[in-house]
Amino acid sequence: MTRSEQLRDHLRLFQELGVTGVSRDRRWRMRLGDEQTELVVGDATEAAEVTSLAEVRDELGECTRCKLHAGRNHLVYGDGNPDAALMFVGEAPGRDEDQQGVPFVGRAGQLLTKIIEAIDLTREDVYIANVIKCRPPENRNPEPDEVETCQPFLFAQIDVIQPRVIVALGSFAAHTLLESEEPISKLRGRIYDYRGAQLIPTFHPAYLLRSPDRKRDVWEDMKKVRAMLQAR
User: What is the mean pLDDT of residues 166-185?
Assistant: First the structure.
């Protein structure tokens, strides 16, 4: 029996036992063969076993796992190069993204495109995703249950892409990925090891539109990103 078939049998058992929801609890960690795997419980998906972004997207489906699905126009999965060395992670879709189904297409997205181009890349060279795949009402902050439900799919995206560098855009993305409550002003400027990549937190482009004086800080962060990408 292959590892995938073993996994399918295990997950079918979990479903029969009535397991629902998504958990990052260590109880849901197990070993199959020589690799440690992390279960996305509820839809009986094993995120670490998928081999392509298309598989992760198929598993996500037309998601109704949390209350955010009721108010969305489009689920916003991600966009860009599936083999990207650089990945950007934001908070959640806004109005423009919800209308188009593509991350970072509004004013903040236009600024992000300029930031990417400033380090001699294009949007087609990188991958862009959000922690949350559906727009929260009135662009409010995502709630803990929404994060718990959605973030395993982001983790799966990261694990499939295997970027060398991840840029966490803004407080929410940085807090979620690093499991820290430190202000973004203190988190930025440092480099963190994260899921096989190096992670750099920086200010969100939407914040830069309100506080253009912080663009210099973001440029300093992006110079570090460029140097890391050029180091190999």
Answer: 96
